Amino acid sequence: APFCSKEVNYGNVSDFLINMIYLLMALYKEQLLFTPNCMKFNLPLPPLSRLVQKAELTRLSHTFLHVPQLHWIVVEDAPQPTPLVTDFLAASGLTYAHLHKLTPKDRKLQEGDPSWLKPRGAEQRNEGLHWLREMGAAAEGKEAAALEEAVVYFADDDNTYSLQLFEEIRYTYRVSVWPVGLVGGMKFERPVVEDGKVVRFHTGWHPNRPFPIDMAGFAVSLRLILTNPQARFDGDAQMGFLESSFLQHLVTMDDLEPKADLCSKVLVWHTRTEKPKMKREDALQKQGLGSDPDVEV
Amino acid sequence: APFCSKEVNYGNVSDFLINMIYLLMALYKEQLLFTPNCMKFNLPLPPLSRLVQKAELTRLSHTFLHVPQLHWIVVEDAPQPTPLVTDFLAASGLTYAHLHKLTPKDRKLQEGDPSWLKPRGAEQRNEGLHWLREMGAAAEGKEAAALEEAVVYFADDDNTYSLQLFEEIRYTYRVSVWPVGLVGGMKFERPVVEDGKVVRFHTGWHPNRPFPIDMAGFAVSLRLILTNPQARFDGDAQMGFLESSFLQHLVTMDDLEPKADLCSKVLVWHTRTEKPKMKREDALQKQGLGSDPDVEV
Asked: Which residues take part in binding Mn(2+) (chains A, B) (predicted)?
């Protein structure tokens, strides 16, 4: 591997004995385009794409390229795969599946809706689960045995993942959990562990939700997903209950497996990328001097 | 390199014949802490650090780990190296130099100043140039010859870099230039190339600055920096003139070497990370229920 300049030791993982990680990522943020803030800027954008999308996919892919046995499942909120994402994935060097599932119009945020009104990405994550279950049903022999050991993690396109996180995720028997940094108006949220068991949650909001955990804070064994076909994300869930709507089909709090040194380390951060300002672009476009639309950004 | 799961081909670069890239990064954003917005939130922060700093360094390091022959020069705006950055770099797997240079108080943004009032990172970038020149003066024989071929690039902690960019940078004779995405209120800014030469600049603002180029849009041969010891960043430069203050010691527009397919491809994006909201953290702290300050975020 000539382009990997350093060997980094992330623990005692053998390259030959590691479980597959299915990283399911819903690209649902296109709908942000329809919020009043974007309307105001009158962005010169093609529909169903976001200006920072290629940048975010680029830096995420650099992280994922360091993770052995990773299979990236990308689900676009689009009527068909977009050329930008298709070309990006083909050149990424990663193993991936490229799916798409358009959110029905009545489930989408409408102009003027606050972003928390409807859960986002539920349709796309369910499409990914469907793909995993189809694959599971078709697998036989050694392949089926390997799937028994695989783990599913729900990634997001602007979060930041340490490489150590993936080594923690890899050994998930049912559902593993860990802290998430910079989430929910907090420095971090985390499961509170006593005597090796999760007993409650450190969170700034609704600690009594069934599972007050951000999407970035848990992973699920593929075996559990395959043996519980009813487990899916509820697109009608109240704000903050999307994760619970899925997890309550699979485990109880007592079953949760604390990772990241008994939930004492932050290995993933809920970073968000600013929407770029397009004020000057807009002004120049009006004079016919805008940026060349043929250059992909 | 067992943790590099795929071999990616970024072009016709031989691993044995590549120039060193010195990536100089000024960590100057600590001063944002003193803006009114942060005062309002009353962030529970140690001085001279930012909440997203570790996350940003983490994902940047994943990009840099793919680049052969990279030497990362990190210059903190601090009276001494901070433990967070020191520990992070030691564990990163990268080759680096960790410097520090505190911005004098009269050069720092004060409470209430708009962020564009004073150029940021000038002191730190000059400190990095000083380090390079000391190293250049001390080098002899083969080492000195290798430095002749090396290239210097000024990185930023929230930008997004494609891996292809570094292969373009590597072959810089004097000063190379290319487009930067999502910068200056534009989809992209770029040098305009005619007959292989840069003839003007596509930018939304002051196109007649000597070099209307963002810091992310050029690289300089180390030889040129060593043979022009007067070239430095002017901390008193007007907004938008910091890059020009350095480059005008080194080249004319006629000398610029267009990269990225004659400046037709966007290979770097000026992404920005949102400041995380700490509303609930603040409320919980007042009840003595804040996040454990011993957990590094």
From this structure: 158
Helix axis angle, B122-138 to B141-149, nearest 10°? 140
Chain A, 96 to 155: residues with Cβ < 8 Å from chain B are none
**Domains located in chain A, CATH noted:** 21-177+213-252 (3.90.550.10)
pLDDT tens per residue across span A202-259: 999 999 999 999 999 999 999 999 999 999 999 999 989 999 999 999 999 999 999 9
Q: Do B276 and A3 touch (CB under 8 A)?
A: no
The amino acid sitting at A105 is K
- Chain A contacts of B270, Cβ < 8 Å? 276
pLDDT of residue B34: 39
**CA-CA distance, A279 to B182, in Å (whole number)?**
11
How far apart CA A159 and CA B209 sit, in angstroms, is 37
- What would the two tokens of residue A157 be? 């396109």
User: Tokens for B105?
Assistant: 């108080």
* Chain A residues with CB-CB distance to B2 below 8 A: 7, 15, 68
Give me the residues paired with residue A219 across strands.
Answer: A153, A176
Q: How many CB pairs under 8 A join A and B?
A: 211
Residues 6 or more apart in contact with residue A247 via CB below 8 angstroms: A175, A210, A211, A213, A218, A220
Residues near B297 by Cβ (< 8 Å), separated by ≥ 6? A181, A182, A187, A188, A266, A269, B51, B54, B291
| Nearest C-alpha neighbor of A256 from the set A194, A179, A177 | A177
Q: Is A243 a catalytic residue?
A: yes
Amino acid of residue B94: L
DSSP string, B185-208: TSSEEEEEEETTEEEEEE-SS-TT
Distance from the A58 Cα atom to the nearest Cα atom in chain B, whole angstroms:
6
Annotated binding site of A for Mn(2+): 158
Judge contact between A152 and A219, C-beta under 8 A.
yes
Report the alpha-carbon distance of residue A40 to residue A35 in Å, rounded.
9
Query: What residues contact residue B186 under an 8 Å CB cut-off, 6+ apart?
Result: A278, A280, A281, A284, A291, B202, B203, B204
User: Would you call B281 and A6 a contact, using CB atoms and an 8 Å cutoff?
Assistant: no
Helices and strands of chain A, counted as H and E runs: 10, 12
Residue B210: phi, psi to the nearest 5?
-50, -45
Share of chain B above pLDDT 70, in %: 86
Separation CA B204–CA A276 (nearest Å):
14
Degrees to nearest 5, angle at CA B162 with B160 and B164: 155
CA B256, B258, B259, B265: dihedral to nearest 10 degrees?
140
Burial class (CB in 10 A: 0-12, 13-18, 19+), A230: exposed
Chain A residues close to B262, C-beta within 8 Å: none
Q: Which pair of structure tokens corresponds to residue A166?
A: 């993936």
Q: How far is CA A29 from the centre of its chain?
A: 12
**Residue A36, pLDDT above cutoff 60:** no
pTM of the full structure? 0.88
